[in-house]
Write a structure and sequence with these properties.
With 183 residues, the protein is an alpha+beta fold. Helices cover 34% and strands 28% of the residues. A hairpin with an 8-residue loop joins strand 1 and strand 2. The radius of gyration is 34 Å and the shape is rod-shaped.
Length: 183
């Protein structure tokens, strides 16, 4: 007799025969708990792997930008780094007390033949940009007319010694190079 007919007749549920026993509620709860634990573990592993992957690519991008900054400044100094041509000047800005690299293609002439390479911090204080600007004075308070060289965390330019014949470039606090100026 079909189940609906038995129920309509007021008869009880059909009894299971031997060997047809199902899972108990406790067994089902244990299975669901194990599946939940395995699923949670899998999600944790995937999330951790994704975070590591993102950090590796962020570090690679940071290193790449630092290399670009050092290479660009090094090439500019090697092309134009004669005595009296390359110097480190004060930015003249209370907002940016860092040194500014000045490359004057015709020293003593007051035309716009000077390149100023300087670091501008982001408003949030996290990193900034290395910029180049062609002008008579550093003018780092305004980025009008400035070209982006690289997005980096930090940039410092200074003389390596008292002779002022070697310029030290430090990017992100760990990538450093020394450039000897031509005589």
């Amino acid at each position: 007799m079909r189940l609906w007919a038995r129920l309509a007749a007021g008869k009880a549920w059909p009894q299971q025969g031997r060997g047809q026993a199902g899972f108990s509620v406790i067994e089902l709860l244990i299975a669901l708990t194990l599946i939940a634990l395995l699923g949670g573990s899998l999600l944790t592993v995937i999330g951790t792997g994704s975070d590591i992957f993102a950090r590796i690519f962020a570090e690679r991008d940071r290193q790449s930008e630092a290399r670009i900054a050092i290479s660009y400044v090094s090439v500019k100094l090697r092309q134009n780094g004669g005595a009296g041509v390359a110097s480190i000047v004060d930015s003249g800005s209370p907002a940016n007390a860092r040194g500014v690299l000045k490359i004057d293609e015709t020293p003593g002439d007051l035309t716009d033949d000077c390149y100023f390479i300087y670091f501008r911090e982001n408003a949030d204080g996290e990193g900034g940009q290395l910029l180049e600007k062609r002008a008579n004075a550093p003018g780092v308070d305004s980025d009008a007319g400035a070209s982006l060289i690289a997005d980096i965390s930090d940039f410092d330019v200074s003389y390596a010694d008292d002779s002022r014949r070697t310029i030290r470039i430090l990017v992100d606090g760990e990538y450093e190079t020394l450039i000897a100026l031509r005589a």
